[in-house]
């Protein structure tokens, strides 16, 4: 394959170069961002990008798929091994597409579905009224307790018994605590519902064997392939029991998608080998340790954290308690070259455009090689920015830290390579 140079397309090439410099010079604490390995990057955009492989291995709509078949079967086998599942579909272009495909195939428009409220940490594609997933079905929602901002399983059970949904969906995009999948399974069985776990944020921690897996309890698991999995951004996985395999495959093709992107399946196959290495398990351990270090740094400076802290890779800062908002602090931190995102918090009183919280995570900078000491220090400095409502001197102190600690730092630390 030809190497891309400025002569290929100067305008696009320059933008790529500027984006690389931006990523190298900033600290990314966006909980949904990560950096994939050079091997995974090399398979994205490989020769497989030009192969039409509509259908499934052995049942393609076009010929010339002998190697595409082997590649997809390899990715499937690795997914089953990595997560301990009975069946895997590796074709979904994203976790959102995977979610939508399953809804369309398994449920009827008048069926009831139950999910975590978006404001309490749920996913956009779990029935948000303004999302495509929220346009059909009879949705009911559960959330967190005011007492500790964590799931109240007695309340979840009560809502399930009242509404009798066809499926209970669990998993969050800004819920910093672990979910008790066994309890959710018991509730689902009591109302004769499927248990569906969206693992998009914590799949890497499950694959790395540092938090409990939902697979013994869930009927269906969906996930993206980036975030804590540290794989290609373009990708979704569906893991399920054999009893649902035909329906799940039909949900993706021909139910919603056409031909899969085989170069992304190549990248996913490589990812699914990486997550089974000793190095990845060490990485997953460090992600958790570094999140706790961030937590300690923030709390030391007096910052209030939703649910009091974290049990995963992400933290949610409550900004209402100190008189500021997510938009203001996100902008202040960006001046210091720290990338975050404003985020609603439980019982928020501000509109999403301002948001009462800030979401941060440890996965991306752990990939770059940051250690516990650095995470504690950056947590403390962010705490000072928050508590001073974006004071210029505090922002400049943090900016200096970023410059000193990103100089020469790669996007992917070689110690994570097997």
Description:
The protein is of the alpha/beta class and about 425 residues long. The protein has two domains: about 40-275, Aspartate Aminotransferase, domain 2; about 280-415, Aspartate Aminotransferase, domain 1, CATH 3.90.1150.10. It is built from 14 helices and 15 strands. A seven-stranded mixed sheet has the order 4-10-9-8-7-5-6, with helices on both faces. Helix 6 (about 180-190) links the parallel strand 7 and strand 8. The two termini are about 25 Å apart.
Task: Offer a concise description of the structure.
By secondary structure, this protein is an alpha/beta fold. The chain has helices at 10-25, 38-43, 66-83, 95-106, 153-163, 181-190, 203-207, 245-252, 262-274, 278-300, 326-335, 363-368, 372-387, 392-406, and strands spanning 27-28, 55-56, 59-60, 87-89, 112-116, 138-142, 167-170, 194-198, 220-224, 236-240, 304-305, 314-318, 338-339, 341-343, 357-361. Helices cover 40% and strands 13% of the residues.
Keywords:
single chain; 418 residues; alpha/beta; Aspartate Aminotransferase, domain 2; Aspartate Aminotransferase, domain 1; 2 domains; 7-stranded mixed β-sheet; 4-stranded antiparallel β-sheet; 40% helix; globular
